Amino acid sequence: MKKTLLLLFTSLLFNHITFSQELSAKERAETIARENFSKSKYMKKEKFGVTKELNRVVVSTPVIEKNVKDYSGVYKAYGFDHTLTLNIKDAQNIQATLKENNGANSNSTSLLKNITINDALFKAVQVNADGTETPLEGVFINKNDNGQTEFGLGIKLSKSITIDNALHIDKLFFKKVN
Q: pTM of the entire structure?
């Protein structure tokens, strides 16, 4: 009897701990915006009696729209020449394509499926040209970079982009252009 009660109590406690660790869509969106798309830098250099200071603050906050159709449009990731097109009729009818510039005049276009948008949290599965699937997660944000605000979609990449075998990019900001 004691073993059964102990097992039941342990099971309930484990389920409560597991349940409490799950984040809501809003909390997840806030976490992604804060941890992946916000930063601050401060540098101070003195050389030959001249002091240079650099203070840069980027604050990203999730943008929760009442109507999911307001997220429709064309989004571009500048510097990488990637374009994401979102066509939204309602929350259950979302279509998207991702056009990626792979360098050397090579482009690839892939469809996104299983797209959900909940409290600014964006989730989708990218279907690659070879048939493999890549999960995508991101958040619709206002990115304030030293007073200049831009609206767009910040996406965490499951596989980083490598440039010149040295620089690894693990997130992209797609600015809404249309």
A: 0.78
